[in-house]
Structures are given as structure tokens and as C-alpha cells.
């Protein structure tokens, strides 16, 4: 993977909403969220705009596809099919609805689009994501993790999970209101541990759904140990620890 380090980013909106009661994560369950890069702008190089990365999440039940583009216009997982360990994923842009097209910021940021692995896929073995996004088609090879105990198609336990998609860069999956995604206040880490602190606003009005929210955290290349890493979550009603996989 060759993605350069980027500024620790703040989150944008999430696409997919799941019902709170009795929710089972199936192949159609999708969501997306991303970080923004304040240093990017119209003159920024777009060498990374065709890069695609990925990670496995939710104890092997879900995956994230990371693309690069506007932080305010995040692609959504539209279709997911599988043949053996090859999973075909189609991403689509989501318009703002109505008669006016949604305006997109001219930055270049990593955006995570999440979906559920189809039944029959074994997350303990290598998986190939064949990603189609407009005219772009790319393959992402994901190493399986023998320690995964989740089964694709089964109900989630709604616990945070995280997976590396690049050196020092990970996707954090949390669950909660789709209208109140986590907002990173600070991020620090070195060696085998790190801490992500989120803003807490108990007075914020949030929808009463339970959705997957993908947050990209970037510690920087060579700043942390990707082989064994514990992430501590503080604030935002997310307090706890997560073992980062991948």
C-alpha cells in the first residue's frame, strides 16, 4: 500500500441506517463515513484518487472499502455478491435528493464505505474484494484472520471493531445514531497503543436508529506497531478498548 500520511481527520455523514431492535447484519447492510483533510484543496494532487484499500471489521462479519476523494461526498455500497472467497462490491455516489445536485468539497480524503460480507465467505481465509466505482475497477486482497469468530450473515454484537487499511491508518467501526457520528477531538499513539478522544455532546438531538459508523484514524506511517495494537476510545459514549486487526 502506498497511501501517504494524511492529517488526522474529522468525520462526515453516514449513509446506511439499520433498525435498532432485532437487527441482523446481512449483505445489504451498508454505511459510509470518512475523514476530511483540511490541507487539501483544488490545487492538491489527485495521484491517490484511484487508490482503493480495504479492511475486515465486526469480527469478520463486515468489510470496509476505502476510496479517496471529497470528504463530503462519500460513496455508498450498492451491490454485494460473492463467489467463493471473491466478493464483488459496487459503490455508487449518493446525491442530495431534490432538484439540486449535492455540492462536494474539493479536498482529497480517505472515505470508508462499509458493507456486510455475504453468507458463505470465510473471514478466516484470504478474501478478494473486486470493487467497481464508476469507471474504476480494482481488486483489494484482504488477509483472513484465524481469530475471527463472527459468521457473515449473523447478527452483530454491536461492539466497536477496527482494522488496518494502510501503515498507521485504520478504520474504526462503531454503532449508534446515524445522525450523530463520532467526532474525533484528538488522536495520539505510539508503539502498540493509542488513544482516540471523541467529543461528547449530551444535548445533541439524534435519530433513534442503530447504524454502523466508520471512522478513519491516521496515526502516521511508522508511528505505531501495526502487528499488535490496542486502541483506547474515550468520550462520545464510546469508552473502551479495541484490538485492531489486520
Structure characterization notes:
With 246 residues, the chain is mostly beta strands. It has one domain (30-244). The protein has no helices and 15 strands. The strands form four sheets. A four-stranded antiparallel β-sheet has the order 1-6-3-2, with no helix packed on it.
* Biggest sheet, spatial arrangement of strands: 1-6-3-2
How many angstroms separate the termini? 13 Å
Low-confidence stretches: 1-46
Helix content estimate:
under 10%
- Number of domain units: 1
Oligomeric grouping of the chains: single chain
Whole-number average pLDDT? 83
Main beta sheet: 4 strands, antiparallel
Query: What is the count of DSSP helices, taking H or I runs of 4+ residues?
Result: 0
Estimated radius of gyration: 17 Å
Count every beta strand, where a strand is a DSSP E run of 2 or more residues.
Answer: 15
Overall geometry comes to: globular
Structural class: mainly beta
Percent in strands: 35-45%
The helix/strand order is EEEEEEEEEEEEEEE
Compact description:
Helices cover about 0% and strands about 40% of the residues. It has about 250 residues and is mainly beta. It has one domain.
Sequence-ordered SSE layout with sheet pairings:
Elements: E1 30-34, E2 53-57, E3 62-69, E4 76-83, E5 86-92, E6 109-116, E7 127-133, E8 136-142, E9 161-166, E10 169-176, E11 184-190, E12 193-198, E13 211-218, E14 229-234, E15 240-244
Parallel strand pairs: 5-7, 12-14
Antiparallel strand pairs: 1-6, 2-3, 3-6, 4-5, 7-8, 9-10, 10-13, 11-12, 14-15
Overview features:
single chain, 246 residues, mainly beta, 4-stranded antiparallel β-sheet, 0% helix, disordered N terminus
Amino acid at each position: 500500500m502506498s497511501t501517504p500520511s494524511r492529517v488526522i481527520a474529522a468525520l462526515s455523514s453516514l449513509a446506511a441506517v439499520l433498525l435498532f431492535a432485532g437487527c441482523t447484519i446481512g449483505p445489504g447492510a451498508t454505511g459510509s463515513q470518512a475523514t476530511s483533510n483540511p490541507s487539501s484543496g483544488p490545487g492538491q494532487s489527485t495521484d491517490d484518487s484511484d487508490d482503493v484499500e480495504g479492511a475486515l471489521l465486526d469480527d469478520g462479519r463486515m468489510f470496509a472499502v476505502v476510496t479517496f476523494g471529497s470528504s463530503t461526498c462519500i460513496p455508498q455500497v450498492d451491490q454485494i455478491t460473492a463467489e467463493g472467497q471473491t466478493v464483488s462490491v459496487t459503490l455508487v455516489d449518493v446525491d442530495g435528493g431534490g432538484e439540486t445536485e449535492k455540492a462536494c468539497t474539493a479536498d482529497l480524503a480517505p472515505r470508508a464505505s462499509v458493507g456486510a460480507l455475504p453468507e458463505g465467505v470465510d473471514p478466516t481465509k484470504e478474501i478478494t474484494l473486486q470493487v467497481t466505482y464508476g469507471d474504476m475497477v480494482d481488486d483489494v486482497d484482504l488477509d483472513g484472520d484465524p481469530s475471527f469468530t463472527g459468521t457473515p450473515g449473523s447478527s452483530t454484537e454491536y461492539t466497536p471493531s477496527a482494522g488496518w487499511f494502510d501503515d498507521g491508518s485504520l478504520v474504526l467501526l462503531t454503532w449508534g445514531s446515524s445522525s450523530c457520528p463520532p467526532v474525533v477531538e484528538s488522536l495520539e499513539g505510539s508503539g502498540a497503543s493509542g488513544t482516540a478522544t471523541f467529543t461528547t455532546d449530551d444535548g445533541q438531538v439524534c435519530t433513534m436508529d442503530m447504524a454502523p459508523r466508520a471512522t478513519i484514524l491516521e496515526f502516521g506511517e511508522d508511528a505505531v506497531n501495526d502487528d499488535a495494537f490496542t486502541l483506547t476510545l474515550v468520550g462520545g459514549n464510546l469508552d473502551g478498548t479495541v484490538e485492531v486487526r489486520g
